[in-house]
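The instructor's notes for this session suggest beginning with a concrete chain rather than abstract definitions. Hand out the sequence below and ask the class to guess, before any prediction is shown, which regions might be ordered.
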Amino acid sequence: MITARTITTGLFGYPVEHSLSPAMHNAGFKHLGIDYRYLAFSVSPEMLGDAVRGIRAMNFAGVNVTIPHKENVIAFLDEVDEEAKFIGAVNTIKNDGGRLLGYNTDGRGFMRSLEESGISPGGKKVFIIGAGGASRAISYYLCKETLNEDGRVSIFDVDGPKLQSLVSDLRHVSPYVYAESGLEKVSESDVVINATPLGLKASDPLPVDVALLKGTQTVCDVIYKETPFLEKAGNLGCVTKHGLGMLLWQGVIAFEIWTGLKPPVEVMRNALVEGFKNH
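After discussion, reveal the predicted structure:
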């Protein structure tokens, strides 16, 4: 039941009608018996500043931020942590006594999803397709926590300047990161990650020719459904993983940032899976 003491959290995006986050977070709040609610707010780009100021004015505990606001929201925050600064995007805001603090939980969420599946990229050759926001979040953690002289991260993007910018930034984190001019080295990699939106629509081309894959590889996608790319990779014998785990764990981390409590991961996972079935 919503009361005068109910604490509000939510999602700022445009559009947000498709989001599974309300089901996931509200299931977690209910399970812990805490008086929090999570709502999805459709915030047009021109109203972003007003919406962020509303977090403070209406004493929200915090919000998630999604497309198209992750980069632009930084200008309205009081402080942004090191990870979010590197990525250049914020997906979680905490209201700390009126100070709005920005975080990015996407990279940590991706790494936790790999970990729970028994997939360790440490010392592996990883090939990431795409140099956008998802790639920046994932590659930051790969370079910071898992790479050594036996492993490397290769990144490809059709946008050359964006690719070079990312690799240049990552070189400050690890020397074992490389810009690729083509997709040929996918076949030499142990882990392949599609960090592009290709696969969201049935008409999308594959992010890489599956003829370049080997059946011994692990193939991941940030899209939280079984894409044609993952299906074809699985048919070759590859271990495949879609992005639903990343969605879960980035939300779990945000939940803990807002509440300071240990999130009920399995409750949140079940709500997310059920929401996805009914989506």
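Then share the key points. The chain has a mean pLDDT of 93. The CA atoms of residues 81 and 103 lie 6 Å apart.
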